[in-house]
Amino acid sequence: WDIDTEDWTRPGADTIAKAIESATPGDIILCHDGGGDRSQTVEAIKTAIPYLQSEGYTFVTIDELLAQSTIPTS
Prior knowledge:
By secondary structure, the chain is mainly α. The chain is built from three helices and two strands. It has helices spanning 13-21, 39-54, 62-68; strands spanning 3-4, 29-30. Strands 1-2 form a two-stranded parallel sheet. The longest helix has 16 residues, at 39-54.
């Protein structure tokens, strides 16, 4: 990944959103979906994704990225 939101530390939704919104083209953003309360991550994503979309960004899953890539997957 290029951006580790460190959301597992629960720094607050605004801090997580700012990390996500700092993305540049091609970045992979790491957010965690386990290990306890993820409400801050969910709130951050609710604002950060629309912001990045308004800036022209699109999103793909890792599987979609690998399907597009010339990097060997094994």
